[in-house]
Amino acid sequence: MAGKPRLTYLNGRGRMESIRWLLAAAGVEFEEVYLETKEQYDKLIKDGFLLFQQVPLVEIDGMKMVQTRAIMSYIAGKYNLHGNDLKERALIDMYVEGISDLMQMILMFPFSPPDAKEKNLESIKERATNRYFPVFEKVLKQHGQDFLVGNKFSWADVQLMEAILAVEENVPAVLSGFPQLQVFKSKMSNMPTIKKFLQPGSPRKPPPDAHYVETVLKVFKK
Amino acid sequence: LPAKPKLYYFDGRGKMESIRWLLAAAGVEFEEEFLETQDQYEKLLQGGSLLFQQVPMVEMDGMRMVQTRAILSYIAAKYNLYGKDLKERALIDMYAGGTDDLMGFILMFPFLSAEDKEKQHVSIVQKATSRYFPVYEKVLKDHGQDFLVGNNFSWADIHLLEALLMVEEKKSDVLSGFPQLLAFKARISSIPAIKKFLEPGSQRKPVPDDKYVETLRRVLRMYCDVKAN
């Protein structure tokens, strides 16, 4: 019988955080290994664990999975969070990919040079409020359902919830023009698995700080 | 809505090329509308057909699909190029993720300054030969089968062929240390639908030139100051 999935990454959000969210939302317990030194990372590569010499790495169901999207697709498929048919899956994928573009901006933000920080923050705010949030506000308004796709909880809802909270950490009043998203955020927060993940002591990682940035630069130094 | 899928993009490779490859390999005929002016692009935007205000956009099966990965996944699944179960799909996704990253280095190449182009050229060849090609070489060597996953033709094979040819365009002998990949390239290129796509007159787009760069910069008002990645 397979053990719990095992996640290998740094002790911080980065590209692994969306995977933590999805596993947690699906009610799946997992273990974590934290990379703290370059030596640990080099050893993983040398021992052949990392297909393309990169993390995230998720050991699950006998596979050593890499590539964030591949991992999340697998988890979503396995735990019935990827829609009921091809068309629902297509919608979920479109929404997730869009949100992921926004999350990419947030991912890179802590690594901005000091003179670009303000501009990058403004970009995140602009994109969130003009490009991404209006789409999901409209989707929810048009069908009036609790979830983005097919009237059923899916990967798209988890990803949107993660994005809303991540943007809010940087732009506190960002949801002020989005009543549907405010309701959505509240509903998602009350779903048992998500509620648990949002409580202290869960595997959720805190916002990236200077120490996290330093660790990333140290571990992945060429 | 049209019976054939309709692709909205520039008359050039960019992010749409992998979609053209996949449709062609699946034997699916498609139409294309090429963006040439700001007006055309504005019209698409105002018309509300670009979910996140971006192309590629593909009209197919009653949907206006955006986001390259979502489109590719849909087409792969629809035409049985996505493995027979979740685990095969996971492998295909992993392999396609790698070739996608590799092709990503080449995607921005035309927009770089001459000096950055030189550096990026070296970087592309180095990444291809030290990080990506060895992986696929080993996969093919280990199982000795014709295709990457599950002994069946899949999206992973099509995407890898596209990547191999793209890197070869940068350095013609880049596959010389990879006998499995050379054989793979010959084998997959000779599949009828792919062979047809590789012939002149197909919808495959040429290596991006200055005209393509100029069109994108003008229509999107972007990519005027791109740095190497």
Automatic annotation (TrEMBL), chain A:
Keywords, sorted A to Z: Transferase
Keyword Transferase in record: yes
Gene3D superfamilies: 1.20.1050.10, Glutaredoxin (3.40.30.10)
E.C. number(s) listed in UniProt: 2.5.1.18
InterPro entries: Glutathione-S-Trfase_C-like (IPR010987), Glutathione-S-Trfase_C_sf (IPR036282), Glutathione_S-Trfase (IPR040079), Glutathione_S-Trfase_N (IPR004045), GST_alpha (IPR003080), GST_C (IPR004046), GST_superfamily (IPR050213), Thioredoxin-like_sf (IPR036249)
GO molecular function: glutathione transferase activity
All copies of domain GST N-terminal, residue ranges: 3-83
Pfam (any one): GST_C_3
UniProt KW Ribonucleoprotein keyword: no
GO biological process: glutathione metabolic process
Domain GST C-terminal: 85-209
Recorded family membership: Belongs to the GST superfamily. Alpha family.
Protein name: glutathione transferase
Higher taxonomy: Eukaryota, Metazoa, Chordata, Craniata, Vertebrata
Gene: Gsta3_1
From TrEMBL, chain B:
Organism superkingdom: Eukaryota
GO biological process: glutathione metabolic process; xenobiotic metabolic process
Record domain GST C-terminal: where: 85-209
Entry keyword Transferase: yes
Record Pfam families: GST_C, GST_N
Keywords: Transferase
UniProt entry tagged with the keyword Transferase: yes
Documented EC number(s): 2.5.1.18
Enzyme class: transferase
GO molecular function, one term: glutathione transferase activity
Domain GST N-terminal: 3-83
Catalytic activities: RX + glutathione = an S-substituted glutathione + a halide anion + H(+)
CDD domains (UniProt xref): GST_C_Alpha
Family statement: Belongs to the GST superfamily. Alpha family.
Protein name: Glutathione S-transferase
Originating species: Promerops cafer (Cape sugarbird)
Gene name of the record: Gsta3_0
